[in-house]
Design brief:
- The chain is α/β, with parallel strands linked by helices.
- It contains six helices and eleven strands.
- It has helices at residues 11-23, 73-76, 97-100, 109-120, 123-126, 157-171; strands at residues 7-9, 30-36, 43-49, 56-59, 66-69, 79-86, 89-95, 129-137, 142-149, 177-182, 190-191.
- The protein is elongated and about 60 Å long.
């Protein structure tokens, strides 16, 4: 067990999980939370489990036991699991701290870039890396970004850079082109603060 990782379950999420477990005859089970980084984006998965598997830690503080695999711990820490109904569809949603605290720069291009990275690429900070904005030319729509720290030499850094290069211009108005690399920056740029 650990009190280092925090995952909050809303009362509605706990109620729905208990109801699903009861319906399936799985009383006493909990929920395993993990993160997959397909195409450089974080995708959260919830699965019912009777106990923590090897490589998972138990998160204290919820009525329903929560298990987190050690590799996902940094990206899951501080998240909130909620149950929502939107547009006639119901389901569980994992809200990251960056999503809930993303309004710090919301009225600027820099803020939109920071928010995009925090929402879509929590693995950068979660794995000990950092994203440094080397240049943001609003007139040209050009963003020069460097992934540093643990990102240098990371096995998924190429996929992460490709995903950022392709998705950021489609998601952030005012950015038309992204030039991105790992390390080698002069560290005079603007560091994307970790939400973790």
């Amino acid at each position: 067990m650990t009190d280092e990782i925090q995952v909050e379950m809303t009362p509605k999420a706990e109620q729905e999980i208990r109801s699903l477990l009861d319906d399936r005859g799985m009383e006493g089970h909990g929920v395993s939370v993990s993160v997959d980084y397909a195409d450089g984006e974080a995708s959260y998965a919830l699965e019912f489990s009777d106990s923590a598997d090897s490589g998972e830690v138990t998160v204290d503080g919820n009525e329903v036991p929560v298990y987190v695999d050690e590799e996902s711990a940094a990206a899951v820490d501080g998240c909130t699991v909620d149950y929502v109904v939107e547009n006639g569809r119901a389901g569980f949603r994992v809200e990251t701290p960056s999503v809930k605290e993303s309004d710090e720069f919301e009225d600027s291009l820099e803020g939109h870039v920071r928010e995009f990275l925090a929402r879509n690429f929590p693995q950068i900070q979660g794995h000990g890396g950092k994203a440094v904005i080397e240049e943001l030319d609003e007139d040209e729509g050009l963003l020069r970004l460097s992934l540093e720290g643990a990102c240098s030499g990371c096995g998924i850094s190429d996929a992460t850079m490709s995903a950022i290069r392709n998705k950021l211009p489609r998601s952030v108005d005012g950015v038309d082109k992204v030039e991105i690399g790992t390390g080698g920056g002069d560290n005079t740029g603007m560091e994307i603060e970790s939400p973790f």
